[in-house]
Amino acid sequence: MDKQSALQQMIDESGRIVFFGGAGVSTESGIPDFRSVDGLYHQKYDYPPETIISHSFFVENPEAFYKFYKEKMLCLDASPNAAHRKLSELEACGKLSAVITQNIDGFHQAAGSKRVLELHGSIHRNFCMRCGKFYDAAYVRDAAGIPRCSCGGMVKPDVVLYEESLDSDTLQQSVELIAGADMLIVGGTSLAVYPAAGLLRYYRGGKLVVINKSPTPMDQSADLLISGKIGEVLGAVSCR
Fold first, then answer.
1. With a threshold of 0.85, does the pTM exceed it?
2. What is the pLDDT confidence band of residue 34, given thresholds at 50, 70 and 90?
């Protein structure tokens, strides 16, 4: 049996699938990832990207932070791809329990997914650091320099920066979903970012699928390993 057929058979036999994804899920939508050859970590800036998107840098150099953030992370003109759409379809037909994502672009919700756990937050939620007023992503994009609230406070994206903790409720829900899944599909992630990648150890089932273009630390543990583009692989799956 070829790998695509094996994936289809696993999905056919499952009813509590959880999908765990990373930046590679959105690269087919034109969103840059971090660690691939053309990823953000391989581009030239005055500071390394991992420094720019840290909490301390945000506090100390908000102008430089927002310049990078608006240019490279606030991608409002892109749209969901075949992977996002198929995951939404699998949820709608009762196969998929939830999507757990490291991405902040909101594409899963835009494609129709209802239960999405965003480990690293979302560009679509922004709050004044002084009064808590909400602002959408377009407001941040269109602001000249540092986005400011009507009260004068600085607006911060609801994204988890380096040096910040993940939301404990989101982590707990993710642990419970992965522990209760009868199939876990891991896609588009190098599994290099912790604590997010550590969530996979809670899976106890026998259908662990890894779909990624490059090797991951979970390859040896996978029941099915597919090297390829996540959109092409999931796009060929049927919900039946």
1. yes
2. low
